[in-house]
């Protein structure tokens, strides 16, 4: 299906998926509940964005015109970074399976709306990936291949 692979960033249960088209790109949005506290890198590439308070990460693979955005929890900026133990920095080359971060579920339960999280897989249209034909499982183990 593709020249790239995406792996589950943690043990997770998928709640919903949607596909969006934007200028020259297709986005597969996966809403999920993390089932463990350790997150790993889902795509070989470079950490290109980390938002303040460490709840949002973007990993880009420019060679394959693919990026992954990972948002941990709903309204997580309200935690002000408490409960997020970041293991990477912007500009850092990363490989699938490297540790991204560890969360403290108990700490976060007191400060955010929900641990429901979002994994967005963004591909250039010239890759001709048809996410609609992708058959996703309901649950994945950390490091298990999604695409």
UniProtKB/TrEMBL annotation:
Keyword presence, Transport: yes
Pfam families linked: PTS_EIIA_1 (PF00358)
Ranges in a coiled coil: none
Entry keyword annotation includes Transport: yes
InterPro entries associated with the record: Dup_hybrid_motif, PTS_EIIA_1_perm
A GO BP entry: phosphoenolpyruvate-dependent sugar phosphotransferase system
A GO molecular function held by the record: transferase activity
Location of the PTS EIIA type-1 domain: 12-125
Source organism of the structure: Spiroplasma clarkii
Protein's name in the database: PTS EIIA type-1 domain-containing protein
UniProt entry keywords in alphabetical sequence: Sugar transport, Transferase, Transport
């Amino acid at each position: 299906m593709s020249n790239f692979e995406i792996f589950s960033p943690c043990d997770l249960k998928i709640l919903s998926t949607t596909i969006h088209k934007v200028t020259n790109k297709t986005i597969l949005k996966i809403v999920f509940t993390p089932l463990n506290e350790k997150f790993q890198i889902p795509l070989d590439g470079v950490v290109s964005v980390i938002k303040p308070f460490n709840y949002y990460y973007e990993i880009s693979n420019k060679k394959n015109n693919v990026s992954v955005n990972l948002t941990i929890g709903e309204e997580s900026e309200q935690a002000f970074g408490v409960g997020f133990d970041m293991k990477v920095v912007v500009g850092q080359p990363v490989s699938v399976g490297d540790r991204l971060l560890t969360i403290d579920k108990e700490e976060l339960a007191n400060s955010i709306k929900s641990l429901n999280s979002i994994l967005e897989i963004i591909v250039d249209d010239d890759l001709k990936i048809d996410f609609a034909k992708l058959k996703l499982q309901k649950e994945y183990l950390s490091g298990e291949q999604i695409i």
